[in-house]
Fold this protein.
Amino acid sequence: MWRPVFFLVFLCVGLGWSQVILDLRGYRYTEIFPWILKTNRIYDAIFIDTPFKGYSGRFFPTEEVYDYTDLGEKNQRGSVVTFLGSREEFDQMMMWAISNKLPVYVRVRLFQQRVGFLTNVWEDADFYPDYTVAFDRLQTSKKLKEIVALLMRMPVTFWVVDITGLEKTYQKKAAQWVRENFAKAFVMGDGEEYVTFSSMPFFRWRREIEENGRVREPAWTWNGVYVLPEENMSAAGVMYYFLARQKRVPIVITPGVVSLVERLEKASPAHWGNLRLIYAASDHLWGVSSEGVFSFYMGQSVRYTNYSLPLSGNLVSYFGSPYLLKTPGGVEGIFLPGSFSLWTIEK
């Protein structure tokens, strides 16, 4: 099938590298522990869900917080533990994260609650009719600042205040409130102009590829944490990751792409040199540098080779040796010394 080949994006890899954050939202503490204790990690931080007790107790990840003093130690909302687990497990996670020098980002919703929420803290006058927090009211803002002060005392590295789904005008005001009153926080919302933690730059860039049929390097002028949300990374995702690392911007990846990213990192990024990437299609990316040739395919299987043409058969690669293509007529040797693409995964 014919595949369009778009123009080249040039990468000049620098000495510094961006922070890679692993998105573990939806994971419980017992599932998070192995990621913290993993040796030779390619990620530098983790991003987890809200640790406080929510209205759904232990059954679903917390959205609206029921009690900011309950980390899984109080018998309320049908359970003692939270969705993530117990207070003891929270303390264990933080202790291991700190000892392993692994920053922890934590999602929390501050600006939306439900009727009857913590009546000893909030009252009806603290909310708008849709039960978003009326932070522009003096007494309400004071209460919200007390919650922020509590969060600031916790050993969390950064909080990510989630305002997605709220009315856009309200989101802008809430984001401004966070900037003025919560120095330890990022904002995740629905407007790229006021959030600081988002997948929107990636989706906008990928849409430009799909609609315009050409690849332009992202501007990287947006000041925040770039989220790469793909569980099965496309060619665009691979290119985006390369560019983010080269530009030294923080980027969030999912657990589903960790093994793939490990293969990229294992190929000695410092020696990528004058890499030129070519976006051929959504499942086909390849590039050339003075160090060798790189080829990426996504389909029924993911294959990494150092050969740039779509060949059938079984390609096997060994560092410093020819790449062998087994065919009925014999074996053809392809020698590319110093290649940074050192493997292939067949069906």
User: Anything to note?
Assistant: The CA atoms of residues 200 and 261 lie 21 Å apart. Residues 1-17, 298-347 have pLDDT under 50 and may be disordered. The longest strand covers residues 292-298. The chain is about 25% helix and 20% strand.
